[in-house]
Amino acid sequence: PQPIIGPPPKSQKYKGVKHTIMVMSGKGGVGKSTVSVNLAVTLANQSLKTGLIDADINGPDDPKMLGADNEKLYAQGDKILPVKTRYGVDLVSMGFILPTEDTAVIWRGALRHKAIQQFLEDVMWGERDYVIIDMPPGTGDEALSVSQLIDADGVVIVVTPQDIALLDAKKAINFANQLKVPVLGIVENMSGFICPHCGQTVDIFKRGGGEKAAEAYGVPFLGRIPLVAELVEKSDQGIPAVVYSEEMRKIFDEIARKVRE
Ligand code: ADP
């Protein structure tokens, strides 16, 4: 028989955390994790105490992106202690407790909700300036589960530059409006490919979708991140873009500045 799920628990704020920010997208694969990780590292570099929750339980990539995929989670009492990464960001991810790197997570809804709940509620953050939540992709049940548990202070939306970005952004904005969480703005990712050979920019996915969406829906435009081949490789090696690229550092400094306003 299907387990019966009661009404969702009332969302709560993390004690001791000044700002909780959800990074979401209208769909998967647009660079939500890349933005979450680099934003978190940028905030940590600005001497802010920063935590990151990898709430994508299907494909928890953040440990790998932060070079922490061999770490384990520890508990103190009944609380989970976040893992310290080498980039100053403390991280909680389902990836730390899944048996192997390529274990697929195939759980039924109720169990999934329970896992997300435990994950979010039982973290011992201590005093933090920022906790960034790398949300499950899209605006479906899982994203809803997360947002019903944690009362966030703002949402950052990641889109790609195609015209469809308008639709994707709209879904995410509607979602945030329903939760009554302010939209801090839109980031356009994979905006223009910089050719590693000639340095020219090629707009593979067109350009400007994120900015158009921001204009259309009256929310701030936070910045544009180019598509760079090097990013994939470095990301797989556990080196965030803002750590090795001056250009990325500038872009994310600007995004972080607007998020902090
Ligand atoms: P999501 O969290 O939305 O599923 P990811 O951040 O995991 O997206 O990104 C999907 C893939 O695209 C990853 O392999 C990532 O390294 C790559 N990627 C993301 N942003 C960029 C970029 N600006 N340039 C090049 N590759 C990128």
Automatic annotation (TrEMBL):
Q: Has UniProt tagged this entry with the keyword Hydrolase?
A: yes
User: What CDD domains does its record include?
Assistant: Mrp_NBP35
Q: Coiled-coil annotation: which residues?
A: none
Here the segments flagged for biased composition (Pro residues) are 1-10
**The keyword Protein biosynthesis appears for this protein:** no
UniProtKB keywords: ATP-binding, Hydrolase, Iron, Iron-sulfur, Metal-binding, Nucleotide-binding
Q: Where ATP is bound, by residue?
A: G26, K27, G28, G29, V30, G31, K32, S33
The terms under GO molecular function for this entry are: 4 iron, 4 sulfur cluster binding; ATP binding; ATP hydrolysis activity; ATP-dependent FeS chaperone activity; metal ion binding
- Lineage top rank: taxon: Archaea
Biological process GO annotation list?
iron-sulfur cluster assembly
**What family name appears in the similarity comment?**
Belongs to the Mrp/NBP35 ATP-binding proteins family.
Subunit info here reads:
Homodimer.
Q: What role does it play?
A: Binds and transfers iron-sulfur (Fe-S) clusters to target apoproteins. Can hydrolyze ATP.
**This protein's name:** Iron-sulfur cluster carrier protein
